[in-house]
Amino acid sequence: MDIQNIIAAIRHNRIRITDHADEEAQTDHLSFEENMKPFDRCPICNGKLVEKEVEKLLKGGVHTAVLTVRAEVCLRCGERLYASDTVKRFEQIRHKLELQQVGEFQPLGQSFTVEQEVLDAIDEATTL
Ligand SMILES: [Zn+2]
After folding, report:
1. What spacing in Å lies between the alpha carbon of 41 and ligand 1's midpoint?
2. Model pTM greater than 0.70?
3. Domain of residue 88, residue span
């Protein structure tokens, strides 16, 4: 891809970040700029992209937040592509979660861990 196409893509706000890249950047502590690429088709399978509202789960420290955002979603494989502004928002929310700055967020149920002995008990119950 040549640089003029990339510049044009940035100007037209066509930069999209895949859900996979966002998760990877989070894991590797990279900024989204290091992952962003412009796409017309799905970068994974070359499928057609449609814009829709999706639910995104964000984790920071012990907390989790659920938000609804616009994304381009591949009709074939389901990969999601986010606008760079959306990924910036993800980073800010993760940061707030890590710092426990959750006062402005709406509580949504509770989160649990399921220990091995509970899993074993479930397995036993389902094999009866
Ligand atoms: Zn795809």
Report:
1. 8
2. no
3. 3-127
> pLDDT by residue (tens digit) across 24-45?
777 666 555 544 456 789 999 9
How many alpha carbons fall within 13 Å on the CB side of residue 59?
7
Which residues contact residue 65 at a Cβ distance below 8 angstroms, ignoring those fewer than 6 apart? 57, 58, 93, 97, 102, 105
Distance between CA atoms of residues 102 and 89, nearest Å:
15
Among residues 18, 10, 39, which one has the least CA distance to residue 81? 18
In the chain, the number of structural domains is 1
Compute the distance from residue 2 Cα to the ligand 1 centre, in Å: 23
> Which of the pair, 59 or 27, is modelled with greater confidence?
59
The phi and psi torsions of 91 (rounded to 5 degrees) equal: -60, -40
